[in-house]
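Page 47, continued from p. 46.
Same chain as before, 338 aa.
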Amino acid sequence: MTAALKQNLHKKLLLWYRQKARDLPWRRTKDPYRIWVSEIMLQQTQVATVIPYYKKWLRKFPDIKTLAQAPQSEVLEAWAGLGYYRRARMLHAGAMQILETRAGKLPETAKELQHLPGIGRYTAAAIASIAFHEPTAVLDGNVIRILTRLFAIKDDISNPKTVAGLWQQAQELITDESPGDFNQAMMELGATVCLPQNPDCNACPVNRFCESRKRGCVDQLPFNAKKEKSENLKTFALVCRHKNSVLLRQQPENGRWGGLWMFPHWADKKAMLKESGLTLKALEKLMTVRHAFTRYRVNLEVYACGTTQRLSTVFQNGSSRWIPLDEIRSFGLPAPHQ
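Result:
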């Protein structure tokens, strides 16, 4: 890539971003803490989903000190429904670490940021470039798609060598001029124009530089030889009622839903009946809730038992509590159980 091409591409992309970028709440601030929160929330989560959670989070935890001093139960309750709950726990742990070792001040370089829990290379680069203007590149799915199409890179992106080359390519595009805006422009272009399917090439500000467009292979890139297919699962949950309360279980700290509250649930129906001590005739089918996580598509079959049924004492274990319905919103439940 020549210096002239790099300069021209850089200029056009920044101009497009400043004219066309979506008005998002985390783009109205230079507060490193708020940028950190937004980057963690945006991991594997759509922008429209994140916005209300981001606003709610900042009302409750407006700064690092407030977050660090909050109990984990409150942190998880504020995150409930956003998914990938490890992110909330890592944010909380990171805030405590920053308060203890850095007097509440977020590290300013990508290298230092990677020492915090839950912050990898991409997130560190995003925070460092946007909040602290460090000229360091980001590489996520959007940027990978743009680079492979822009330079007609047909190598397998599941190969670490290809990814390493893309990191290098991304870094070569970065300059000292507005590195945060440039990184956001790349991500914005991938999110709104250079889409996985049916990209709007006519609206692309850098389409004249796009090699894959010239060669007619835009839809073939990026190439991933190990693209995972989703797997269908069926799970079962039981809503047990007693007067105006329902039975919830707090999940183990080290599990997928660590620290959250859920209706008792199982991987198969036989296990549900055995542990609860109930028969299928004693249950009422309420609904099927469909949801997804990582590469799984889940059908959650939900049953109910009334107050007259006898429940196994094993079923009502130490992690279970009868929660009044008018208090249930103060407990952190993942989205499908909400």
